[in-house]
Structures are given as C-alpha cells and as structure tokens.
Design brief:
About 65% of the residues lie in helices and about 0% in strands. It is mainly alpha-helical and about 350 residues long. Bound molecules: fe (ii) ion (2 copies).
Length: about 350
C-alpha cells in the first residue's frame, strides 16, 4: 500500500467508520425506546470489545520502535505533544464523571471502563516519547504536571444523549488532531513519534465510531429530539483543553499555526463530515445553522447516495484495510482450546 492510499484509508476510518464494523440499523421492536437503546449499546459494546481485543490492542513497549528514537521532531512538535498529553492527563475526571452519568446503561458503562484503559495509554506513551527523545527532562515533566493539578474537568452537558453527541464530536476532533500531528512528525523524519501517533489515532478513531453509531441509534428512535441535541451540542462545543490547560491561548496558536487543529480544521474535517454522516433531513440540516447553500449541497449528495443504494449501484461498506499496513499488534501466544 503506498503512502497516499494509506492516508486515504486513515481518513476514511476517521470519518466514515471501519469496514469491519458496518452501521446496522436498529430493528424496531415493540420494546420501549429505553430497552431498545440498552440492547443496542450492549451489543455494540460487545462488538467493539471483540474487535479491540483481537485486532487493535497495542503495547507501549513492544509496538513502538523505541530503538529508533531520535530528536528529529521540532520544538513546536514537542510542544504540541506535551499539550495533547496534558489533555489526556485529566482522564480521572473524564472517566468518573461520564461513567457516573451513564452507569445505568450497562453497554455504555462497560464502554467507558474500556475507553479509560485505552485512553490511559495515550498520556503514558506521549510522555515516554517526550522523555526518551530528550525533548523534556524528568524535572520539566514533573513541573508541568504540577501546573495542571489545579484544574478539574466538568461535564459540559448533563444528559446522556447530549454527552454522546459531545464525545462523538470530541473524539473525531482528537483523531484529526493526532493524525495531522503524525503527518507533521513524518515530514520531520521522526519515525518513532509517527508510530506513537498512528496507534493513538487508531484508538481515537475507534472511540469516535462507537459514539457515532450510538448517536445514529438515538436518531433512529427519536429523530427530532436527537437532532435538537446535536444542534445544541454543536452550538456549545469546545474542546476540553481550553478550560484546563494553563496558557492554552499560546499553545492553541502554535497548534493552529502548525496546521494541526483550529477553526478551519474543525469546520472542514470535523463538523461537516459528522453532519454529512448523520444523514439529517433538510429541515434538520437547516436547524444546525448551516447556510442554505450547504444544506442543499449535503442534501443533494445524500439523495444521490440513497438513489444509488436503491439501484444497487453503491455499497455503503466499501472494503478498506482494517488498519494501516505498518500497524501490527504485538505478538501473542495463541493457544488452541481442545
Ligand atoms: Fe486519547
Ligand atoms: Fe479517545
């Protein structure tokens, strides 16, 4: 697979899901909406867990080419890595507050537990790279960590449905962040950092897909109420870093100047792809605050897609590689149970 194809695969995985995890519409039964949602999330979590265990697990020690570590990355790149690691450090707040909100839903609560494990690796591996590359000393890391201790993340929305809309947006934005930073690391010739970022972005992409499927399930069962929540969350969305990290304005500017993330990236690579993916009606699209021209463009595209599906000309689930070629989880001993 050449680099371009691999990048296209990553982009597709980030925005449209994975080929091995198709969007299956809910089967509408006579059960209550709550019961159907619970069934959906539990089933969705089991699928997620199975794929994660068999194909996506990676080790911070053996799946990163630490032997090839260099200090090739620029100081700006190191500053961005440090900033992203800082956001990941508020994991105790994210896990306990979201789990508390969704604890009555077994599927969502189990997902949050697994999510917490996967997210915990992100700050560890980013910190390992900062130290091993020589970009930061142990003392600098400790000092920076101390400066973060005063902050506490608060739930930005207080209903489980609004929170899943929020986490859907936030996870895609995070995946785009890491993917853009990975491209920068590659252009600076930092193989080790590029691999770190590829694994982290793969996790973020899987998180986004779990949440996106959940939002679609809510859309199917309560289209109007869910569309209102999506609009509300988009209208009030901001990434957690803004409120948590000291001197974020400076860091945010460096991230934007580097082309990794900013308003333009958010609108083009996060907001728009999500709105297109949710297949909202014209009326719902107007409700999201898009311009009339954008509403027409998205609706026409969706109409064409639906027509192609009706005529059997188009498959929603194109075959793409399950992960980029260079990613191979660490070897495991497979035993056969007699
Ligand atoms: Fe993360
Ligand atoms: Fe994530």
């Amino acid at each position: 697979m050449d680099t371009k194809t691999e990048d296209q695969v990553i982009q597709t995985q980030l925005t449209q899901g994975r080929s091995d995890w198709p969007d299956e519409p809910l089967t509408i039964t006579t059960a209550s909406v709550d019961a159907q949602i619970e069934d959906f999330f539990y089933d969705s979590y089991l699928r997620y867990f199975k794929t994660a265990e068999s194909r996506r697990r990676w080790c911070v020690d053996s799946d990163i080419p630490w032997a090839e570590i260099t200090s090739n990355a620029s100081e700006t790149t190191a500053l961005i890595v440090e900033s992203f690691s800082a956001v990941e450090m508020f994991l105790p707040d994210y896990t306990h507050k979201i789990t508390d909100l969704v604890r009555k839903s077994r599927g969502r609560a189990l997902f949050q537990a697994n999510w917490g494990y996967e997210e915990s690796k992100h700050s560890i591996v980013l910190d390992m790279w900062l130290e091993r590359s020589g970009k930061r000393t142990e003392d600098q890391m400790a000092e920076f960590e101390r400066s973060l201790l005063g902050g506490e993340w608060k739930l930005p929305f207080d209903s489980p449905r609004q929170m899943i809309c929020y986490t859907m947006i936030q996870e895609l934005a995070t995946g785009v962040n890491y993917n853009n930073l990975r491209e920068r690391a590659e252009s600076e010739g930092d193989v080790c950092l590029a691999r770190v970022l590829r694994w982290v972005a793969a996790d973020e992409s899987a998180h986004y897909n779990f949440f996106r499927k959940g939002v679609k399930a809510f859309m199917e069962l309560d289209p109007e109420g869910t569309a209102k929540d999506i609009k509300w969350v988009f209208d009030h969305f901001s990434m957690p870093a803004h409120a948590l990290i000291p001197e974020w304005d400076e860091r945010g500017k460096a991230i934007e100047d580097a082309g990794v993330y900013g308003p333009k990236v958010y609108l083009g690579k996060v907001r728009r792809p999500i709105i297109e993916d949710l297949a909202l009606t014209r009326e719902q699209l107007r409700g999201t605050g898009l311009s009339e021209a954008e509403v027409q463009e998205i609706s026409d595209k969706e109409d064409e897609r639906q027509e192609a599906i009706r005529q059997g000309k188009y498959s929603r689930f194109t075959t793409i590689a399950t992960s980029p070629r260079l990613l191979h989880p660490c070897k495991r001993i497979v035993t056969t149970i007699p």
